[in-house]
Structures are given as C-alpha cells and as structure tokens.
Design brief:
Helix content is 47%, strand content 9%. It binds protoporphyrin IX containing FE. Keywords: Iron, Metal-binding.
Length: 478
Amino acid sequence: MTEATARSGAADESTTEAAGTTGIPDRTADTGSASLPVPRPARAGRAETVRFAATHTLPAFVRGAFHLRPRVVAAQAALGQQGWSAATLRAMRARHGGAPVEVRGLSGPMLVLLDQADVRRFYELPVRTLAMDAPDKYKALSLLEPTGVICSHGDTREERRRVNDEVLAADRPVHPSCEEFRAVIAQEAPALIQGSELDFPLLRRTVARIVRRMVLGDAAAGDEELARWLLAIREESNWMRMRRRRAAAAEALYRKAAARVEEYAARAEPHTLTALARNHPAAQGPDAAALDAVGQAHHWLLALDAVGPIVARTLLLLAAHPAEQEALRAEVDGGGAELPRLRACVEETLRLFPVVPDLLRVTRAETEWSGVHYPAGTAVLVPALFHQRDPEHVPAAHQFVPARWLRPGAAQDIRMAPFSHGGGRCPGEHLGVLTASLLTAAVLRGHRVTGGRPAVDPCRPLPGLLASAGIRLTLAPR
Ligand code: HEM
C-alpha cells in the first residue's frame, strides 16, 4: 500500500473505475477469445529506466520542485537539460507505440502518459479517482501547506476546493478585488522603473511586497521575517522529507508561520484573500477548524510568488519580439484590466516555460489506460512541458506565438496545459494571469523593453529552460 492510499484507505475500497470489474485482471490469462490478445503493460527496460531517471526525474529533483535552486536551473539551462528529457520521452513514445510506459519513479512505479488520448483521459477522470496528492508530491507539499487543497482528498478536499474557487474567483477573469489589487500594483511598480535596467532580484522583492499585501494585507508588506520562514520551509520541501530532523524543524516553522498568517488575517483589509477566506461561510461552520480556510493562503503565497519569474520572462520575450510589444501599446495605455493581448503573452510564456512542468497524480481506484488495467495507488505522470512543446502536435512549438491563445477554445485545448485541465485545474489561473499582466503593463506603460539578458534569438527555437534569476532587462522611456 502506498503512503497516499494508506492515508485515504483507498486500497481497502473495492471501488473500481470500470463497472463490473472486481480486481486486477491477470494480463497473461486466457480471456476465452483467441483472436483478442490481452493488452500488456509497456514497461521501461533497464537502460530506458536509467535514461529516464538521468534526463528527467533526477534533474527535476535536483532543480527543486517547490523552490527552484537558481544555480542548478542556470546550469541545466546552459546544458540544455530539457532537450535531453524531451529526447528521452520521444524515444519512449516511439519504442512503445505511444502506450503509457511504466517507469520507476522516486517512490515506486509510475505510469508516464505520452499519447494525447491518454492525456485527455487524465484530465477527464474525476479527482476522486485520479487524486492530486500523489505520494512524492504530498511528501513535499505537506511541509508547505499541510491543510492545502492539493494535499487533501475526499469530502474535505471538495470543501477546500470550494473555498479556493470562491475566494480566488476561479470562474472570473477579473477578480472582484481587482481595483484594490491594481492600486497595490500601482503603488509598488514605480520601484521597478527607476533606472534604465530592471534586474530579477528587484522584481522578486517588489512582487513579494505586492503578494503579501494582496494575500495578508498592507500590514504584512514589509514582513521579511515571514518571507524568510516561508523560504526555509520551501527549501526543505525540496528534500521530500528525506532529512527527517530538518523536516521536523520545518514543521515547527510552519506552525509559527501559520500563526503569523492567522494574525494578519484577523485584521486584514476586506478585499485581501485571507479576509475573504476568513469571511467565507465555510470558515464559520462546525468544521471550520479542520477545513482551515485561512490556511489555504500558504499555497496562495507560494503560487503568487511565481509572478516575478513570469513577468521577467514575458518582458524578456517581448524585448526579443518588438512587434508583439508594439501591438500591446493601445491596450497597455488604455489602462483597463482585461488586457486580452497581454494576457495571451503571459499564457504563451507559461506554455514555453511552465511553472508546473510535470503533473503528477495517484489513482484511488483501479483504472484502465490503453486497454491495460492498473491497481489503485498507481502514480500517473503527464509531462506537461514535453506535450505543450511537442512539435508533432503543437505548431511552432518552440516559438513565442501569443496569438494562439486568442483563438476560441484555446483555454480548453489539452495540448497546452500551463494550468492543467479538469477537476484539478488551477483555481488561481485568472488571478495569477491578471496579476502578472497588470505588473507587466505597469512596466510597459511609460517604457519600452529594448533588450535583455540572457540573449533570446527570435529566429531560433527557444531554449527549454530560462533561468529567471539571471534575467536583466534594459528599459528606455517612450
Ligand atoms: C500564474 C501562474 C500559475 C500557474 C502556472 C499555476 C499552475 C497550476 C497547476 C498546473 C496546477 C495543478 C497542479 C497539479 O496538478 O499538481 C495548479 C494548482 C493550484 N493552483 Fe495554480 N498556478 C498559478 C497561479 C496560482 C495562483 C495565483 C493561485 C492562488 C492565489 C493558485 C492556486 C492553486 C491551487 C489552490 C491549486 C490546487 C488545486 C487543486 O488541488 O484542486 N495558482 N496551479
């Protein structure tokens, strides 16, 4: 029994996804039909397993899942690590005819989905069957947000997801607190455009202030101590509880940080995310303590911090594509919040350089993939970055083409999944894109981005990784 199934008791449930199936079929057994061969699982051989580990799993682990290690990212970017990973996945797809391939993951066997039909099914299966809290993910995330929706299952998960959906206004492109958030961005953004250069450390600090104000309120804007605590927890989460003593220390630090977040939430301005969570009806009910509506803020702080790298990469790509930058002019000067063209640029940046390059789940019931049945507790991986940069399915896969996001239905196109799809789709998608777009617009309103480092050649395929920590942009007044 895996850790995740042990926690949920899923392996004890006799539920199966396929009606009438009561157990795992013997794949070698005679089905009684000589003409119908029983599909066999595609298993990676020893050499393939080593190659997958060396080019995909280990580099991702060393990079850090929840707190990217800047030097490792820079080294992997220089070495072209994403190219190795893509080559491995392409070879696996060719060798196994597109079937899902069973490989050895960090915690045991894992099914890697390489065919679009299987990827579609991954998104279509309900989260109760294909759960978010896969063991490897849970080990890391449970340090950062033990009561977060992504770490939860069953009815508790559904309640927490409802709170997230409503507080983050998951179904609305413009968040109800947009006016207040815009005011925060307008107050903080001038720090970015003082000189003719904008480097990433300044952008990261500015975004951190904006995020604390949006989530916890103005009183938290300068709370560097809380920032240090959260950073230490994130760094430890990368070790996935392998260092037991340090994990215990991170748990203690989480309790301190959670108490600080509660203090801010109690006096936060009504438009902030923690005030909205605190005033949510579910936070007043009998199960309020177990639900921990305010505790969801730990994920919100983590996720919104990604706005810094997203803005840095978007501006760098716009510097390399001056015509795209120019085409944003009217929209940016107009001062509205919809910003459809700029949002498309942000989404395209996320397709090329996703914040979540791998989507990992665990099955809570028997499932069937390409005719083969797998037991509950199977880890399933969609290498999302590989798929959304796959030239076999995505035109101009390695080019910056924001217009693809303006086509009707683009947000539901499963070839591209920076926010995932289906029941596990990101509830903060609109808020994240809105925040990144508003901040990018604030930089572009009085300036042009004329260049930047690292150099990006618009005529060549874009690199697989773009280390944000080293990004430096050149600004010119207009
Ligand atoms: C802007 C960049 C963002 C990207 C690219 C992004 C991407 C994603 C992805 C791919 C997932 C699914 C993860 C998985 O299957 O393991 C996810 C989940 C989630 N995201 Fe985001 N996200 C972003 C911003 C945000 C923001 C701003 C918030 C909240 C303030 C947020 C809150 C969440 C939550 C709560 C989940 C868990 C959903 C669940 O368990 O059902 N995200 N995000």
